[in-house]
Amino acid sequence: MSDNVHVISAAMIPFGKHRSSSYVGLAVPPLIDALREGGVEKSDIDAVFVGHSYGGMMTGQRICKEIGLGTIPTVNVDNACSSGATAMHQAWSAIREGVIDVAVVIGVEKLTQFGGGTLPLSPEDREVKQGIIMPAVYAMRATRYLYDTDATAEDLALVSVKARKHGALNPFAQFQKEVTVDEVLQARPVADPFTLLMCCPTGDGAAVVVLASDRARAKLDRSPSIRVAASVLHSGHVAEGFRDMTKPEISYDSARDAYAQAGIEPKDLDMIELHDAFSIAELIYYEAFGLAERGHGADLIRDGRTTFGGDVVVNPSGGLLSKGHPVGASGVAQIAEAYWQLTGQAGRRQIDDAKWAMTHVTGGGTAGLDHGACTIHIFEGAR
Question: Which residues contact 118 (CB under 8 A, 6 or more apart)?
């Protein structure tokens, strides 16, 4: 068993509309870059874990064969929006258990294949049969939250403004232009109270990280690297009938367990990359992560406490709202951001003296569950 697991390199491509690219074409460039940066030869790799939701059969094998990487275990992981982060959890578990020493984690998705609109959900789900789509789910959550608290549509707009401000500093973000509160509020309506700029864009993208055990890290002589202090994967609570949509139990429980595993508290975090598929999510997750009391998430965005110079920088990459959300790639891209921030390689969006980072992604809207999956990782920078 390895005492620690380390992220020793990261790479990604800019998220956006890559209509002429295949899954292989999206993933191979960052795969090559991550291996080169980590000083990793193909012979060093013990396993590859690939997160995607719509790539079809053997996506990982199709990617790996392009660089002549064969024979080793290649595992494809589908866990909806949590696919890439779940692939990371599987890789971490294998190294921790001493089964392997070096793992490559790939997250990749090509959503332009659907031609636009909302993402297809399982036709077997009873709520999907009735016409439910993800913007409607989050819109109901937002409507209830605004009713129960003093939060307003302007607070939802502030989340989008912050996301775009951060994204303007990120060359990998799908949107790199700042917006104002008025622009957000006056954008095209999507699902009340959301306008278009309160919803994450679909697109294509890929990200890759390389993990190593203590032994492999020493052998590869890799510096800088970051330590995986916690890796938690939960599936959702099963409950029929009434559910409080403003309290996602799966994220509350996952955060609690991650803090315990890492031995830290919310106040120790310097940055968080969270699943802001819609602007209301950020306010609710402030509360789930212990950054604010129930019903007071809006206070943080109003007071500027979750941007540069505040208590903790939330989504320095621009988050899903600005960076984009190619489903299977998002969780790995969050980890890449944590790696760059904790090793001082984040460029114009660098957080001063960042030591602790958390990434969070949920996956799947399924009847009877608060979410299908939630994966949280906590990372510690080099001491």
Answer: 133, 134, 135
- Residue 128 clears pLDDT 60, i.e. is over it: no
What H or E segment, with its residue span, contains residue 356? Answer: strand 356-363
Distance between CA atoms of 75 and 99, rounded to whole angstroms? 14
Q: What is the pLDDT of residue 24?
A: 98
121 lies in some domain: no
Q: How far is CA 100 from CA 68, 75, 96, 318, 353, in A?
A: 20, 14, 8, 34, 32
pLDDT at 303: 97
Nearest to 48 by CA among 61, 66, 35, 58: 61
Do 246 and 109 share a domain, yes or no? no
| DSSP code at position 197 | G
Is residue 284 located within the same domain as residue 351?
A: yes
Q: What is the CATH number of the domain that holds 162?
A: 3.40.47.10
**Which H or E run contains 126?**
helix 126-129
> Are residues 148 and 16 located together in one domain of the fold?
no
Q: Would the pLDDT of 365 be above 80?
A: no
Domain final residue, candidates 225, 258, 291? 225
Strands 356-363 and 313-314: unpaired
Q: State whether the Cα torsion 80-381-28-35 is positive or negative.
A: negative
Write the CB contacts of 219 (distance below 8 Å, at least 6 apart in sequence): none
Q: Is 224 left (phi over 0), alpha (psi -120 to 50) or beta?
A: beta
**Nearest one of 206, 197, 210 to 322, comparing CA atoms:** 197
Its domain, for residue 376, covers: 127-200+230-380
Number of domains composing the chain = 2
Residue 8 — φ and ψ, nearest 5°?
Answer: -110, -10
**Residue 78 pLDDT more than 60?**
yes
First-last CA distance in the chain: 22
Q: Which of 64, 81, 200, 374 is catalytic?
A: 81
Tell me if residue 81 is catalytic: yes
Instruction: Give CA–CA dist 343/309, Å, rounded.
Output: 19
For 38-63, b/e burial (b = at least 16 CB within 10 A) is bebeeebbbbbbbbbbbbeeebbebb
Predicted confidence (pLDDT) at residue 79 exceeds the cutoff of 90? yes
> What 3-state DSSP class applies to 105?
strand
